[in-house]
Amino acid sequence: xxxxxxxxxxxxxxxxxxxxxxxxxxxxxxxxxxxxxxxxxxxxxxxxxxxxxxxxxxxxxxxxxxxxxxxxxxxxxxxxxxxxxxxxxxxxxxxxxxxxxxxxxxxxxxxxxxxxxxxxxxxxxxxxxxxxxxxxxxxxxxxxxxxxxxxxxxxxxxxxxxxxxxxxxxxxxxxxxxxxxxxxxxxxxxxxxxxxxxxxxxxxxxxxxxxxxxxxxxxxxxxxxxxxxxxxxxxxxxxxxxxxxxxxxxxxxxxxxxxxxxxxxxxxxxxxxxxxxxxxxxxxxxxxxxxxxxxxxxxxxxxxxxxxxxxxxxxxxxxxxxxxxxxxxxxxxxxxxxxxxxxxxxxxxxxxxxxxxxxxxxxxxxxxxxxxxxxxxxxxxxxxxxxxxxxxxxxxxxxxxxxxxxxxxxxxxxxxxxxxxxxxxxxxxxxxxxxxxxxxxxxxxxxxxxxxxxxxxxxxxxxx
Length: 464
Description:
The protein is of the alpha/beta class and 464 residues long. The protein folds into two domains: 1-54, CATH 2.30.170.30; 145-434, Aldolase class I (TIM Barrel, Alpha-Beta Barrel), CATH 3.20.20.70. Helix content is 45%, strand content 11%. The chain contains 23 helices and 14 strands. The chain has a four-stranded parallel sheet with strand order 7-6-5-12. Strands 8-9-10-11 form a four-stranded parallel sheet. A hairpin with a 3-residue loop joins strand 3 and strand 4. It is globular, with a radius of gyration of 22 Å. Adenosylcob(III)alamin binds at residues 194, 246, 296, 402.
């Protein structure tokens, strides 16, 4: 059905909910590329006014991508919790925004409501929110997960230690890994983006990571970010895999572009669970998403890229991951053109995922051909820290030498912890103190060449 509103002296009509959502979205290059964006600021504001009056129930009755042809839509509708939705079922999108920002709407209320909120509802309300609204509401969402340590507790910030190398050189990876550990990074995961897809080469990386973790009894988890089918095959061959990784998207077609289906992802989770490697919990998946993935594969069905991204969080929620993150600026300026668009997208992604009950981090990043710089990333980093981000990336020097993009460094995490008073995962914090890497207050110590971690570097360079 059409949606109408008047703005100043002009009348506006939007033929369906999908169009209304796209026109209400803050400006970004991906929606402009797809021909979905509002043509003027006035049209965008008119769409937001109309969207504010849409009942939340409409998103259950008027799906944006057909139920019959898209398994992500079926997942969203079939798993919707009507009982959790009931207390907010009378809200419009505007009412929902107001409720989210109330002081009386606390973490317990948001946790209770999460199973009743669909991705489209989350995306819709985010379009009505200022950046500070996204920070405030996300900060109230608490999502805690566990494998060998506890991720997502209030007042905590974890870091994925990302020791990539362009040739998968084990000595280079080990050196970057030790560098990160000595800076107090790695409590989210030690995760490698490999250059090779050879199972033999990948198994060597899994074995090296596990040897280091076990040798020093590090309460964290490791991951090699290769395709899920390769990881299932490696599990069958006995590789020491903690977390199974996969990139996911918000439509069936986009996921097929990644070479996955929901059933395959469930199979991968079951394979990881069968290893029983977690000591504190059974959150065994690590998932990555990013605005523009559905559009880049031509699988967006005319839905704006931010709403498609929010739908990816329904996939994540189904798989009960330890970690999920948006690689917000990685896909490039064709989808998020400049620092302003990247900042907005990062705040949206974090808010929508946390609102849906997904443990959300962010790769606060940009490619070198985007109109962005490290100052923009500092702004997003600080705002996400205030918003209660679950984890960020720790890349040596903030410059990934394998993927050739700009991210956040070990020092950036130290900055954020110092400014906002954030601690690491509690088990990892205790280990750092035990290893004399930090003092009792969690501050880094000066580490000499005789430190236990450094003495073991030659052995680790052989991958044993």
